[in-house]
Design goal:
The protein has helices spanning 2-15, 28-38, 40-53, 55-61, 83-86, 143-148, 151-217, 223-257, 282-288, 290-311, 332-339, 360-427, 433-468, 471-474, and strands at 66-76, 90-102, 108-119, 130-142, 316-329, 345-354. The chain is α+β, with helices and mostly antiparallel strands and 482 residues long.
Amino acid sequence: MKAWLLLFACGLAQAQPEPAIPAIPWTLRRSVQEALSRSPELQRLKAELGQAELEEPLLLALTDPQFQAGYSHTNDRSPRAAPAFQGSFSRLETFETGLLQRTLLGTETKLLWHNERLTSPSLFRTLDPSAASNLSLELSQPLIKDFWGRPDKARRGAARARALSARWRWENARADHAARAARAHLELYFARRQLRVREAGVEEAERLVVSHRDKRRYGLVEASDLLQAEASLELRQTELIVARSSLRQAELGFRAALHQPASSPAPTLSEPEPMPEPRLEPEAALSRRPDLLSAQAARKAGEWDLRLARLDIRPDLSLEGAYRFSGLAGTYQSSWKDMSGWDHAVKTVGLRLLVPLTFRRERLLRRQAEQALEGLAAEERRVREQVERELAQADESWQTARRRVAAGLRLLELERRKAAAEESNFRKGRSTTDLMVRFRQDIQRAESELLRAQQDELAARIELARASGTLIEELGLEAPAR
């Protein structure tokens, strides 16, 4: 019997459900992190940043050595004017291998091993077939454009500036997404608090209606008092409907800001953490704003592009030189042996000049680069003016919101004291239901306005941090490298 009781007790213990683990409320920082990690736009900008950062390594990769090889076979049986001298036919076999090296200064160096084997029987060719081998070192150096103008520095500078501009565009998008997610978090949190205020008002109005209906049966209240209580209940129920709709809109906005499906449940939110007291420094804010830094980097890239366009107008004067050893014999092996004696050297030195006749393309490219730079400079000025305006507006909004919160706290205290005094008069029979309902509505209105002021204060503080370029750091996220 005891064994059966023990088994039954064990079965009951196993059948009991485990207690549910309460969900951890989402903090403001967690909401922002979720939005940043799921944003498709940030992922696209991150990919563009990676592409921009590869531009300079691609320029450096142009200096990698290259291997070249070639082979050709020609069988020429076309008619000859003098077959006795030219031969009745000819077969030419050619192959070569070599290494090609380019530098950022435009220097082009080639180390080539060239071989030819010619078969052309004729009366006056004492060596048929003949094999010729050449080992040459060739050098070409543009003097004006590349060596003196140094376009490699301009190309690398433009690549770095474009990569920096892309990085600051990504940082600016991060700050915008963080501010949007933070505002959505605040809207949802305060929408829920507003709903609780409206629900409390409806419950209070319902209790008042029930109380007045009971008192009306005994003639303790007038009919107008009951109607006033019912009208107050109807008004508060309407406000509750609006609050529920606002909450639904806030939930949709929160999911949209965090890039979550519209059908996913909204998480429980914790009270927003207080942010540190800001120190408004306009010059420091201008040096931290990622959109302004991106515009400055883009303008710098435009300056490098203009320098490249101006270098293209200069004539192309190149110094060319070659040093070659040759060998000739009847077979490849013999010609290689003849070449390896290093007795048959050929030296070549010269200059090559290339000058456009009209410079039309070069002038158009330079004008295009100048106009692009003018546009980038104008964009930088526009962004600077916008940053200064946003900073001033954000500071004014935050100061106003702080004053609103202080005034809202004082107003709520006064409304509560006023309602308490009127309730005392009502119990003594020296007040009416109309005044009591009106005073309680005033308390509810003051609470609602205080919540709006607190929400606006936090939203203004977030906007001030975004305008100052410190939002990511103040939220405790990874700070950008300056």
